[in-house]
Amino acid sequence: MDLVKKIADDTRLTKEEANRLYDLDLDTLGKLADEMRKKRFGNKSYFNINRHINPTNICADVCKFCAYSASRKNPSPYTMSHEEILEIAKNSYANGAKEVHIVSAHNPDVGLDWYMGAFRKVKDALPDIHIKALTAAEVDFLSRQYGHDYDTIIDMMIANGVDSMPGGGAEIFDEEIREYLCKGKVSSTGWLEIHRKWHERGRQSNATMLFGHIESKEHRIDHMLRLRDLQDITGGFNAFIPLVYQKENNFLKVEKFPTAIEILKTYAIARILLDNIPHIKAYWATSTIGLALIAQEYGCDDLDGTIEHEAIQSAAGAASSNGMKLDDFVGLIKNAGFTPVERDSLYNELKVW
Ligand code: V47
Which among 16, 117, 198, 297 has the fewest CB atoms less than 10 Å away? Predict the structure, then answer.
C-alpha cells in the first residue's frame, strides 16, 4: 500500500516503511501528523508549571555532548544541600509550580542517601508537589555505584516519594553511536529495562531522544521503534521528547546540524510512528520557542512548561536558563492559534488558559 495512504488510514508502519518517512516532504508529513494530533487533542496544547532542579554537576561519566557536568570546559563544580533543594522547591511551589523535575549528574562522592534523601525532604515538606526525578542513566549509575540491582533502586525511589521518571539518558539507542557518545553510561537495553520495571510498578515515565549530532535518520527511526515495542508491552510512557542537540561547550565535534525543516520532520515522524505514545513534546529549551510553537502544527501537543531555571541545555547554548514567564508562555501559545491547557505531570487537565 502507498505509504501516505497507509498513514492516513492509521495503519501501523513496518521498519522498512518507517525508514522511508524522511523521504516524504515536510508538507506531507506535517499534514498527516497534524491530522493525528487533532484527532486526539483537537486544538489543545499542553504545558505545566514546573521547575527544573539540577542539584549537582559533578559526574563520574563523560558524555561527549554534555556541557553541564563539571569538566575542563565547565570548571565550576557544585553540589546542593538538601536544604538548598527544598528551598528552591518551596519557592517554586509558592509561585504555582505543580512539578519539580530533579535531574543530576552522576556524583560518586555524595552517597545514595543524598540522592534519595533529597526526594524525601521535598515530599515531606510539600506532599502535593509532583516529583519527577532520576533518569534511567542515574538509576543505572546508583545501581552500579552502590551495588544494588535496578529493582532495589526503583523501590527506594518510590519509598522516598518519586512520582514519575523523566525521559533523560536515552540519547540514541544504536549501540555503536552510543558507545562513541557516552561510553560507560547506561546501555540501551539497561535504559529500556529500567523503564519497563518502573512501568510494571504501575508508574509512568517519559522518553527522550537526543538528535542532530552524529546519528543518521535510520538511527532515529530505530530509536523510536525500540520505544514503540516497549510501549506495546507496558503502556507506561506518557510523552516522547525529541531533544535537539545544543553544540556549545562540549567535546562532540559535529559537522552538520539539522535544519528547521529536519527538526519539524522529526517531530512529525514521531507523531506518525509512535501510535501508542499519546504525547509528543516540543521541548522549547532545545528547539527554541519559535520552532516549538510551529511544531504544534507538526504533531506536537505539548511544550513542556515554564521551567523557571534550567542548567543542562543552557550550559550547551540553549536560551532556557531562566525559563519563561507564565503570561508570556500562555500568550505565545494563544497567538499561535492553540488553546493552552495547563496539565499536571500525568496529563490530567488542570486549567484552560
Ligand atoms: O538525557 C545533554 C540532554 C537530557 C545536551 O522527561 C542535551 O519531561 C541537547 O531528559 N544538547 C536531560 N540536549 C533532559 C531531559 C528532559 C528535558 C525535558 C523534559 C524531560 C521530561 C526530560 O538532556 C539528557 C541529554 O539527552 N542533553 N546535553 C546537549 N548538548
Answer: 16
